[in-house]
């Protein structure tokens, strides 16, 4: 229930904020300077099985494509140049906006760092390690290869893993069978041999197992952090969470990521204990859905400031990186990390890793809208929501699929829903004043009016 | 208690003055470029008709796309409300059995499901394109070289059904031009236009669900050709209250009485 009064909670900045920013900055710089350090580069999606290339050595650096596309989107002027370059090259405007941003950066032969600095020379990867579940994933890198070949004469080897084996969320929707798991596992094992072949390096199983274990821990830790946002007042708001979950999209397999999330978890627990709020006047709780329009994140601050409405997350923020399980009591909680000793050899570890990844909550909704609806309804109840704001995201057909059905399912469950249309990465398809007007209507329909200013 | 509601829309400004639940006066002006002046003119005209002055209005609420302008002098509204909230309050007041309210204005179409108290249960708005709204009819009337107010009666004369695929004003105009070149009678083209609008608005309304009674408000509700087309599209009766373009301003004036 929304509060008609205007509560006043204590707030304070996150202590580990600067560390999150520094880690992200370093990641972008490391990829750029990999060659100076004698290292190798690979490229792939944020959902790729990133722990596996770690078996090639400690000088292997990656750039994950969706966060890179989102970074470009945040810097609107550069994003526009990238989109124009992609369109000039003949690619359609209705394709994935991250993909178009990424291609544009490669076409312009410019690389943007996390702080917005643009450097000449797009750092091409030595190989591509990708997985495929959304309609664009494999095609994305097919074009990256074509551009590299055309512009630089470089032939980048590519390996793509098909993960479309059906939903796997035990106690909710689970269609994973032994042979489906085997299908993904075998591709990964073949991939290890492929990695050795294309890099000429010897693969170190122990390094890979360490990385898999790191990834299991970091992704479970992020889920645990998100569960704390079910508290009232919420200790985190979604706009802040974007700057924190991004580490999981970039380096979920790294020790630094585990250590950061452990630190963050302790801090968020402390905030809950002391009643520290993300939004000073929290009186309404919502979640959003899919990627936000990255160039217009001030929407979140508008809602907090004007209405005391805090977005406590989304299936996207929770589940893009967080690994969850439905607990015995039916609630969502962090997926239980197996003991490290269980990852005893290459085959066992890769099989367990495949099962872990197939559990990703952002994947099952590609198969069946009901899975996502059930997850959204669970979140709405557990996180004590007053409403849901769904983003018809023209920039991502993959995550926007089924949204209209999700809307109906939420409404049938008695949860108020609003929709807004936009694009995560192409500002030409987003109308800020009209979107704010739409949020105003939603807030008023929930019974809220603007907080009167002193 | 004397209250007022101002609905500053994309095409026109509407002002309604009430004493309790009694409507004292209404006024409408073209919005134009000078929104403040237009709003002031509408309010002054309504005040003149009611025979009162600005200081007699205890509470004034603004709505419509330009409502923020009304928070500043000379209007100095006490507060603003969004269009769906004002529409819901106004529609339930003029027709208490309203459960679905459809508002088609100059640049926006919107629909809301409401309860008996006039509270909004769900709403939907058309996206950025104004196709299917009043501006679309104006553009098509220009293409047909008829007055905009004649479009509705003209459409009613037609017994043919010509599908117009285009949902975009620019492409629709191109289709209209093609039909003109094919010597298609104007009434048939006019019907094709209102049918295509009804299809677009109908598709939007279905997203919130159709619950009777369905009330149509906004300037486009005065287009009888469109009203008939929408009835066919939704396969339901549609109530059009008197002065449908004033219902948003009326709702704002009713909300003003709550002095929230």
Key features?
heterodimer, A: 454 residues, alpha/beta, four-stranded parallel β-sheet, B: 260 residues, Nucleotidyltransferase, domain 5, five-stranded mixed β-sheet, 10 strands
What does this structure look like?
The complex is a heterodimer of chains A (454) and B (260). Helix content of chain A is 48%, strand content 13%. With 454 residues, chain A is an alpha/beta fold. In chain A, the strands form five sheets. Chain A has a four-stranded parallel beta sheet, sandwiched between helices. In chain A, α1 packs parallel to α8 (238-251) and α7 runs parallel beside α12 (346-358). The model of chain A has no long low-confidence stretch (mean pLDDT 95). Chain B has 260 residues and is of the alpha/beta class. Chain B has two domains: 2-85 and 246-258, ATPase, nucleotide binding domain (Nucleotidyltransferase, domain 5), CATH 3.30.420.40; 96-240, ATPase, nucleotide binding domain (Nucleotidyltransferase, domain 5, 2-Layer Sandwich). Chain B contains eight helices and ten strands. Chain B has helices at residues 35-50, 83-94, 134-144, 151-156, 169-181, 186-208, 224-234, 247-256; strands at residues 2-8, 12-19, 22-30, 59-63, 79-80, 100-104, 109-114, 120-125, 214-217, 238-239. In chain B, the strands form two sheets. In chain B, strands 3-2-1-4-5 form a five-stranded mixed beta sheet. Chain B is globular. Chain B starts with a strand and ends with a helix. The model of chain B has no long low-confidence stretch (mean pLDDT 91). At the A-B interface, β14 and α16 of A face α2 and β8 of B.
